[in-house]
Design brief:
It is found in: Cell membrane. The protein has 349 residues and is α/β, with parallel strands linked by helices. The chain has eleven helices and twelve strands. 56% of the residues are buried.
């Protein structure tokens, strides 16, 4: 049951806070006057790229939708704004907490300072941050994943699928989080076939330069790798990854998606036959589980990690050409079992 301390002030306060939300990012809040007397549920604040990225942010939204359906409460999801500061992000989270949302989740490592600041101001609200393990406040759940493990399996798939012995990796932004994807992928390729060359490239040095939100940059990078004979390209680049997939489809090579099962994404339907698989992390499950823990009165806090063993990172099997390739599936199964047992130690940098 939801706790009495989560009941919020209605009326003028709600109106003023809604105004504050509109000032620091668009929202698709779905509140109603009869929703448990203002006792509201899960709210998420998106990372760069926003809802509709067919990847990371959309996965968080899926978790929100599941919680809303199951618990029957009001939810909110708020878009980022261009050029925003940490203070803007913190104000967004503070506004959501003031409105009575609990938990409040920042989607992406860029929310670290904002989550820490907001959590200090609202110690009775549970906050979550996806993809950051540095906040570690008593009322914050650091929702992190072993992306390198799924990326290792993507490397196995790439090495078994290439016909040119050249594959590519496109990272959105040159940061430690994306280094995990690169390290796991390269190790998976080399452990499977040392003769395969891996071309690696980052789109930008900072997120503000558009590394996670520029399909054109992703497309250009993939085209460059394809010109160098890469016939499988793995993108860990958020919305920019759509450009990588588009380039792969245009040049009749394989793309490997990330975070969500991109073969199933409606916006990518015309390219799906070129999506070999996707290295997934179950952001939806992590976000939903945090909401459920609050609903049950036992909020998750501290570092909450998803990995191959827990099933929260994996490879998608939606493409029949991938799922029906027995040799490829056997190689992936063997690698997965060795990672879970500890026989294979996957690098994260």
């Amino acid at each position: 049951m939801r706790r009495i301390s989560r009941i919020t002030v209605a009326g003028a306060a709600t109106a003023s806070l809604a105004l504050a939300l509109s000032a620091c990012g668009g929202t698709s809040t779905e509140a109603s006057s009869d929703s448990k007397g203002g006792d509201k549920g899960l709210a998420i604040a998106y990372d760069v790229g926003g809802k509709g990225d067919q990847s990371f942010n959309d996965a968080a939204y899926a978790g929100l939708e599941q919680a809303k359906k199951e618990f029957g409460y009001s939810t909110a999801d708020v878009e980022p704004t261009e050029g925003e500061t940490d203070a803007d992000k913190e104000q967004r989270l503070v506004s959501l907490a003031k409105q009575g949302y609990n938990p409040v989740v920042g989607v992406g490592y860029a929310y670290a300072a904002a989550v820490k600041g907001a959590a200090e101001k609202f110690p009775d609200t549970t906050f979550g941050i996806v993809d950051d393990s540095t906040v570690e406040s008593k009322n914050v759940a650091d929702l992190v994943f072993s992306e390198e493990e799924a990326s290792y399996l993507a490397g196995v798939a790439a090495a078994k699928s290439t016909k040119t012995d050249t594959v590519g990796f496109v990272g959105g932004v040159d940061i430690p989080l994306i280094h995990k994807f690169q390290a796991g992928f390269e190790q998976g390729v080399k452990d499977t076939n040392p003769q395969v060359k891996v071309l690696s490239q980052y789109l930008t040095q900072t997120a503000e330069e558009g590394g996670f939100s520029s399909p054109d940059k992703g497309k250009s990078a993939a085209e460059g790798q394809i010109e160098k004979k890469a016939d499988v390209v793995y993108a860990a680049a958020g919305l920019s990854g759509q450009g990588v997939i588009e380039a792969a489809a245009a040049n009749k090579v394989w793309a490997i998606g990330v975070d969500s099962d991109q073969y199933k994404q409606e916006a990518l339907a015309k390219y799906k036959d070129s999506i070999l698989t996707s290295a997934m992390k179950d952001v939806a499950k992590a976000v939903y589980n945090l909401a459920k823990s609050v609903e049950d009165g036992k909020p998750e806090t501290g570092i909450v990690r998803g990995d191959l063993k827990s099933g929260e990172v994996s490879l998608a099997n939606s493409n029949p050409k991938f799922a029906d390739d027995t040799e490829l599936q056997d190689a992936i199964k063997t690698a997965k079992e060795k990672i879970i047992s500890g026989e294979i130690k996957v690098k994260s940098s």
